Amino acid sequence: MKFGIVVFPGSNSDYDTYHAVVDQLGEEAVYLWHKDHDLQNSDVIVLPGGFSYGDYLRAGAIARFSPIMNDVIAFAKKGGPVIGICNGFQIACEAGLLPGALLRNESLKYICEFVRLRVTSTDTIFSNRYEDGATALMPISHGDGRYTADSETVDRLEGEGRVVFRYLGGLRDADEWWSPNGSMRAIAGIVNEQGNVLGMMPHPERAVDPLLGSDDGLAIFESLLSRVGV
Amino acid sequence: MSHFRIAVHITPRRGILDPQGKTVAGALHTLGFASVTDVHVGRYIIVEIDAADRSDAERQTREMCEKLLANPVIEDFEIADARHPDALGASGGPAFSSGRP
């Protein structure tokens, strides 16, 4: 399976994603320059983390109009799998691939730490390798991660099983929702209506090896392998 | 064609949590401005544009707001006149020439 990793000016998780896919997953990956129009026959597109265009105006607002985004949007509309991680999530929201927006953390502080997540939907092409009710340890690293949408939209996301990841009570064992960034209903990751676009603030590509503190993120990439299977 | 300076005020949509505004309001209370009831922190953008007339310039700016400058999910915008460079001065803010979207 071929993963196409979009490189925007200011992307910084592109190499991490490449490492996750090539070295840990053993699959193929290519970098896709933001000014190109060629997805190079990728099976999955990753919008990686970082600070594209310096987060000017709003995080993801300028990257959303990069030339390659026309092709990424067309790919997604045809049902192609797209993962937006961190800044990629922000870009996917700005591009209208996912509902809602990501605002400045409620604490107004940049947060860089491991968080525990609850996998709240294992019925997606991105999460089918997790067991029902599984928890996953992954790092977050963002200043603008407060997921916000109108309450009808959030109700719909929940009702349709489209909230894939929620933040759990820090590193403690408590099974209670907790928003490190003030996200509505502790939402950490969602999928679109068709289920082929995932957006999440935590970094699964930085949790792919016990040496990094966790390999709980690898299951997202493995899920794609078993479902999309090329 | 004439040259226009169009100002855009972008503020958090009402009802959306604005921790920055809340923090500033708290600081103003600490300073003794007890009558402050709320503060909203947003963004001020000046677009310099050549257009046939003012309404054309404002129409184009409105389109820019809808496409890029503001995010309708979380923000409101207002278009104002920034023709005079001193429009930002304390002696008088820019006159609003059109309403909310």
Features:
heterodimer; A: 230 residues; alpha/beta; Rossmann fold; 9-stranded mixed β-sheet; two-stranded antiparallel ribbon; 11 strands; 22% helix; B: 101 residues; alpha+beta; Mth169, Chain: A; 3-stranded antiparallel β-sheet; 3 strands; 28% helix; elongated; disordered C terminus
Number of helices of chain B: 2
Strands of the widest sheet of chain A, in order across it, are 2-1-3-4-11-10-9-6-7
Tally of separate domains of chain B: 1
Strand content of chain A: 15-25%
**Average pLDDT, all residues of chain B:** 85
Between the first and last Cα atoms of chain B, what is the distance in angstroms?
26 Å
Number of domains of chain A: 1
Low-confidence stretches of chain A: none
Overall, the morphology of chain B is elongated
Looking at the structure, the CATH topology of chain B is Mth169, Chain: A
Q: Can you identify the CATH class of chain A?
A: Alpha Beta
- SSE series of chain B: EHEHE
DSSP, total strands of chain A: 11
Please name the fourth-level CATH homologous superfamily of chain A.
Answer: Class I glutamine amidotransferase (GATase) domain
CATH homologous superfamily of chain B, by name?
Phosphoribosylformylglycinamidine synthase subunit PurS
Indicate the mean pLDDT of chain A: 94
Textual characterization of the structure:
The complex is a heterodimer of chains A (230) and B (101). In chain A, 22% of the residues lie in helices and 25% in strands. Chain A has 230 residues and is of the alpha/beta class. In chain A, the strands form 2 sheets. Chain A has a 9-stranded mixed beta sheet with strand order 2-1-3-4-11-10-9-6-7, sandwiched between helices. A two-stranded antiparallel sheet of chain A has the order 5-8. Chain B has a 3-stranded antiparallel beta sheet with strand order 2-1-3, with helices on one face. Helix content of chain B is 28%, strand content 27%. Chain B has one domain (2-87): Mth169, Chain: A (2-Layer Sandwich). The chains are: A alpha/beta (230), B alpha+beta (101). Chains A and B meet through loops of A and helix 1 of B.
